[in-house]
Design brief:
Elements lengths: L3 E5 L5 H10 L5 E5 L2 H10 L4 E8 L3 E2 L1 H10 L3 E9 L3 E4 L12 E4 L1 H6 L1 H7 L4 E4 L3 H10 L5 E5 L1 H6 L3 E4 L9 E8 L15 E9 L7 H10 L5 E8 L7 E7 L7 H11 L3 E12 L2
Parallel strand pairs: 1-2, 1-3, 5-15, 7-8, 7-9
Antiparallel strand pairs: 3-4, 3-11, 5-11, 6-9, 6-10, 12-14, 12-15, 13-14
Bound molecules: prephenic acid (PRE).
Catalytic activity: prephenate + H(+) = 3-phenylpyruvate + CO2 + H2O
InterPro entries: ACT-like_dom_sf (IPR045865), ACT_dom (IPR002912), Chor_mutase/pphenate_deHydtase (IPR008242), Preph_deHydtase (IPR001086), Preph_deHydtase_CS (IPR018528)
GO molecular function, one term: prephenate dehydratase activity
């Protein structure tokens, strides 16, 4: 039973919004952490029951910190996924509301800044970018430092929470700006309530390593899924961090774990000399 849920804080980050959307009216305690790894460590240590972490943004791609920490350091399971819309706004301290065009720094999470690059390039070409641990952390900082001439990129809830003035709405460069968030848990299955009003998609995520120096290995991996008609919605490589050219692959299968097809594909991959690890089999909700 999930009672305590950790997220990248402070209050009013996008990850906090994802927690609120996913757990709706369920009475879960929502606990902020200053980094994604510290939040994942807290699940592994038993201080909290689950963590909600960003895994991929439609404009910026994977959140490498989350994927790498999950694979290399903290082996938790993905037990749920939400895809949430991301609307970035430019905000300032209310005392700067009339002179916001004169800001000399832009402060936010690196992903949020990256999602607004074209806007920043055209509207503030000479303004320095500074990275915060989260959009919420940037908003909190500026609320406590009214003397600084900073613009922050964050969401509407952060403007409310930290009493900031939104001076330019929807500054993300492309309309379709959504982020995927995973719910991480120490066991394969968590008793998660279904999300009212949404139809989930079933998914399974695997981590695969290839045998070394075997030509056509990736092709063979893909064939193990293809001839079983297992639909893949994502394949991504990340460095193993053991040497240039060594990668692991994250593969999303559009189906929950069954008793025949996915275990058959895994057995075939293992017979080829691949390493295969189940990262999770879960329901994914697109919140639109
Ligand atoms: O800084 C936040 O508000 C976060 O929740 C982190 C994060 C990310 O890591 O991508 C989450 C969603 C948005 O894409 C921007 C930032």
């Amino acid at each position: 039973m999930i009672q305590k849920v950790g997220y990248l804080g402070p209050k009013a980050t996008f990850t906090h919004l994802a927690v609120k959307k996913f757990f709706q009216d369920n009475q879960v305690e929502q606990i902020p952490f200053s980094t994604i790894p510290s939040c994942m460590d807290a699940v592994a240590n038993g201080d909290i029951d689950a963590a909600v972490v960003p895994t991929e943004n439609a404009l910026e791609g994977s959140v490498n910190l989350t994927i790498d920490y999950l694979v290399h350091d903290q082996p938790l399971y993905i037990v749920g996924e939400v895809i949430a819309p991301i609307k970035q706004h430019l905000m300032v301290h209310p005392s700067k509301a009339l002179c916001w065009e004169k800001i000399d720094r832009i402060y936010s999470h690196s992903h949020a800044i990256a999602q607004c690059h074209k806007f920043l390039h055209h509207s503030f070409p000479h303004v320095v970018h500074e990275y915060a641990t989260s959009t919420g952390a940037a908003a909190k900082y500026i609320s406590e430092h009214p003397e600084e001439n900073i613009g922050v990129i964050a969401n509407e809830l952060a403007a409310k929470e930290y009493k900031l003035k939104i001076v330019k709405e929807n500054i993300h460069d492309y309309d379709y700006n959504h982020t995927r968030f995973a719910i991480l848990y120490p066991e394969k299955e968590a008793d998660l309530p279904p999300l009212d009003g949404f139809t989930p998609r079933e998914k399974t995520t695997l981590m695969i390593t290839l045998p070394s120096d075997q030509s056509g290995a990736l092709h063979q991996v893909l064939s193990a899924f293809t001839w079983r008609k297992l639909n893949l919605s994502k394949i991504e490589s990340r460095p193993m961090k053991t040497g240039l050219g060594n990668y692991f692959f994250i593969i999303d299968i559009e189906m929950s774990m069954d008793e025949i097809l996915i275990p058959g594909a895994i057995a075939e991959l293992e017979a080829l000399g691949c390493g295969v690890k189940l990262l999770g089999t879960y329901c994914a909700y697109d919140l639109k």
